[in-house]
Amino acid sequence: MISSREYGSHSWELLVTVDHQHEEVQKEFLLQVTGDLHIGGLMLKLVEQIKISQDWSDYALWWEQKKCWLLKTHWTLDKCGVQADAKLFFTTQHKMLRLRLPNMKTVRLKVSFSSMVFKAVSDICKILNIRRSEELSLLKQSEDILKKKKKKDKNSREPVTEDILNLCNSPVSSGLSGSPGLYSKTMTPVYDPVSGTPASSTITWFSDSPLTEQNCSILAFSHPNCSPETLAEMYQPRTLADKAKLNAGWLDSSRSLMEQGILEDDQLLLRFKYYTFFDLNPKYDAVRINQIYEQARWAILLEEIDCTEEEMLIFAALQAQYHVSKLSLSSEAQDFTCESEVDEVEAALSNLEVTLEGGNSNNILEDITDIPKLADNLRLVRPRKLSLKAIKPYWFVFKDTSVSYFKNKESALGEPIEKLNLKGCEVVPDVNVAAKKFGIKLLIPVADGMNEVYLRCDEENQYARWMAACVLASKGKTMADSSYHPEVHKILSFLKMKNWTMSPQAISDPESIDMKPECFVSPRYTKKYKSKQLVARILEAHQNVSQMTLVEAKLRFIQAWQSLPEFGLSYYIVRFKGSKKDDVLGVSYNRLIRIDIATGDPITTWRFSNMKQWNVNWEIRQVAIEFDQNVSIAFTCLSADCKIIHEYIGGYIFLSTRSKDQNETLDEDLFHKLTGGQE
């Protein structure tokens, strides 16, 4: 019976379940509460009833029906909307989680299940010593991919036991505030910039961290490649629709793990979500560089990104060089104080940095009144549906962001035959160094789709200059921009790696070299060539990269990955407003591309630099975007939640605001304003 005094005070009973490990103590408690009792008072009342002496500071209330945490302890039950039918769960905020890293290693650590995913990833990266956590996020593998993996596991004879790196004793994992990561602008380097090993002067820094020297080595170095059998068992996307499945499971950065149905000891993938690797520095980023390298390597091996046979051999040669350098590093002591080598690596890094705007803007005092131009004889190729390609030589002039062509040099003072505005176009390399083919494929937006034009250059220097100009023009930049010359240098260095000549002594006895070529190339090429043929071709390509250091080999690999036409594209199946068929939408760091789902051909490109605003109609789950010149698009996402695409766009806009002058702290509120939406 309830007394008249209690009845008059409008009190009621609330059931709370406590998550604790004491079997002899009950787990369900019935509390007499009123609507004006605040959350902090409810937890105090609960702890007094439990009568277990322990630290309850990491505990909070989880509302099961509403799938939300009650973290605002000063709010009353009435304000939260908690009534007698509510099922509350008093549980720890930090729980164990298994994370599969880009290098396919699994780590087990304590993560906040109550913080927003953006904050949780930041804490994870502090434990793993990865700077720039905003570039990463957590991915839940789709059911289709897991089902295919389970089928293959059933067919395999021996069960695979996973080697898990346990990092559960970290300060951040325990719910305490962690160190700001092993980096500051004033401290000494943490890693040797040539070998990537922890610098001897800072090895003691790891003593209080879960990242011991051994654990750091696991994360900062690549290890022997998996067997061809293991590679064959992994999920390989065959179509654009398959590639769209890879990006369907990104978690919402503005909600907690628990709110998204993630349970204790679940496995998620930690991946680089945004392909803008800012401020890479081998002195501090050995783990980060290695994990980017590994994500690139697996994307190429599993054919998540397309590349030519020539490019595949370059990637194989760079992997081979990495392992050769690593073996020589372990077998003989090397002097890593050579300044010239360090300068080479840092020069590679300056080319490697990518931002939404592209390139560096250090040379502020450029003479912008004198915009350079290119003028040369090139061949123009226009594909024709019912006949052979028409290839004709013309005199081309490149100025500002446009290409004009004339019948010959003498007629260049008059009107051009045609003027092509390259702003917003797609630029695709069409190169085969061995066959002396140096082509540039331009997909120029027109009213009814994309106009396809090919430019043919005579040699690699000419190609590098014109290709760099086209790439910058597509972003709305001219050759006066400070990123033009680094872009030319980057293209030439990539061509140089492709331009190998056979050295008889280098491959006189391929069998004497212990190499499993199947581990360095995708399954498509292991089916096409015999093992001996692959070894010979990889060693042939290896000659141009044989002098590279450990870190440089990885950086060159990343750089070559960035040069691929499909680099940085995340695919989603969408239905555009007014369309009767599905299309694929490619989201990149600087643009959106509408792609024909059947042929894979780009239909239209929209650049973020021309975007005025974007929003989501949450009722019909439709994304609407407005661009300059009264261009507007709207679409619904069929392969994932529309919030994922909304967050991608906002995330890339947010990352474009970063600058080296800022300190390491991020404007988290700005990120959530740009990506959170008003659902």
UniProtKB/TrEMBL annotation:
Gene3D superfamilies: 1.20.80.10, Phosphatidylinositol 3-kinase Catalytic Subunit, Chain A, domain 1, Pleckstrin-homology domain (PH domain)/Phosphotyrosine-binding domain (PTB). GO terms for cellular component: cell projection; focal adhesion. GO terms for biological process: cell-matrix adhesion; integrin-mediated signaling pathway. It is found in: Cell junction; Cell projection. Transmembrane segments: none annotated. Keywords: Cell adhesion, Cell junction, Cell projection. Residues 379-475 form the PH domain. One of its GO terms (molecular function) is integrin binding. It comes from the Eukaryota. Belongs to the kindlin family. This is FERM1 protein. The gene is Fermt1.
